[in-house]
Records
---
Amino acid sequence: MYKLLLLTMLSVVWMMMQTLQFDGELAMRTLFYGKHAVNRAVHAAAQRLDMEALANGVVRIDPQAAEAAALAYLQANLRIDRNGVPLPGTRLRDRVEVLVFRIVNEGEFFPYTYRNEAYDYEVTLRKPGVVLIVRVRNPRVFAMLEPIEWAIKGAAETVAAV
């Protein structure tokens, strides 16, 4: 009888460990999913040049077009609505929040080092570029892990020659 009880208890422990492993793998997959979306968004935003300034020989990112492109790419890649709320049937469950959206334009001296102490982020841009930090929360499947939140960071430069 004690062997049956021991086998039952070991099975429960084994299933809990498998659940923890699965939850951890899902968390890492969500992090990579978010990172790829942020990278695509900053690259799209960094390519939105002000054509009028470019005609005058100045490489400058158009702020309105860049922000619109970044948000559109985040919405398409993370499958969220305009307010950051995930659409039905998507991987995420909690609201995605844009923490920082910064455009570094021709008014700065390059190479320009962007520092953000609050999110422990530093990046050096050699040309005009965009910095984006987004908060994503891990959708836990089981209650094995504590809630995990990431401030996912990304930066990109224009491809135009300066």
---
Amino acid sequence: MMLPLADLLLSPDDMAAVDKEAAASSIDSYGLMEKAGQAVAASALRYFPGALRFVVLCGPGNNGGDGYVAARALRLAGAMVLLFHLGDPQRLKGDAARAFADRPIEGEAIASYAPRRGDVVVDAIFGAGLSRRVPDEVVAVIARIDEADIPVIAVDLPSGLDGASGQILGAAFRATRTVTFMTRKPGHLLLPGRDLCGELEVFDIGIPARIVRAHADGLIGENTPAQWQTRIPSAGADTHKYKRGHLVVFSGGPNATGAARMSAMAGLKAGAGLVTIASPLEAMSVNAGLLTAIMLHAVEDEASLRVWLTDQRLSTFILGPGFGAGEKARQFCLALADRHLVLDADGITSFRDDPQQLFDAFAAGPTRLVLTPHEGEFARLFPDIAADTALSKVGKARAAAARAHAAIIYKGADSVIAAPDGRALINANAPPWLATAGSGDVLAGIVGGLMAQGAPAFEAAAAGVWLHGLAGQHAGKGLTAEDLVASVKPL
């Protein structure tokens, strides 16, 4: 499925290559800058009609050129406009120099701007191409504007944000609105960038789609149904419970059974035909008294598990929620190396001393393993990748997926789902109130339920994260894990 341009994610480097190819194709690059600046001005006038002054802050590159065009358009519309620049604008080159030459008013050094009530700031200092810490004079301006609580319209990306990672490079504007062009960047979706962009507008300035798509590798995008829906099995008229797969969730001891039941119910609601909790003998009575639609099977040790595994209909397993970390978890996991496995929580931690043992067990054949680490668990399995400050969250998830031959759900408010082949999706539909006890158990259950039905590991992981966010939206603020399970809906 071909996604609309606005749904693609291009890195700042890829977008720079798009701009370069557009110019090489005899497209009027200044005309593109003119459209970008006009779009910013239109947004400013549409959303801030009561502004007393539009204060345009222009940087030393093409982002600043967009700002000079916006300043001219705002002035021609009759607005009061003030212009401030970073560095010596006489040193501008190319289209930015032309935009500066056409500026409507003289500007001042950016350090001289004193915010006033009624101002609306247009931030055209750096945009998405910044890769170094912002200079001190910009840090000071950001602080003054933030203290004055003045609305900010960011051009492309709030200055101070890394467009590839969404990380703050020393200091960054908190924009009320961000106007970007042709496509979004990863920094628009990854945190904290997403929170600092405010409302995001993607404006088509006329670069041909063929050029944009040529530089979009198709491997990175936002996690939406368009990315995976065709790979998720749908129920037909002849569907019965055995066709929809058998999911098994391992339970912990008698005092740690709730997490497994939460995962099991989520898997059932996500569409698995049958769900069984594999329980140690000492927890059988606890689980039996609290299960209805979920079946129960005694599995005490590795030997009893291997006997049970002679039943090939048991295709998908969840290990980790409430299970306990240690040798038993490792034994069970390795016994499941030829099956589909969602490894969560204690299951992940159990391999902290020898993660390669886990990776080797699932290295051959199609991807069968889904790992669901949060920040700390990720660092236990992939300490060197977690410590690599040159990698964004997307880069870390992709590197981990390739190493582990697994689909990775690098959890958080901006969860990243990655596949061994380099595909990665950034999730943006999760409400903040999902951060509650048991939420991860529900996520593991949804993913397992989708895999049991035959969804490939990466697509099951991505769809599971999205459905988890949707359930959180439906359950609402103050949800508990029980509320979340009740709100899970199949595709």
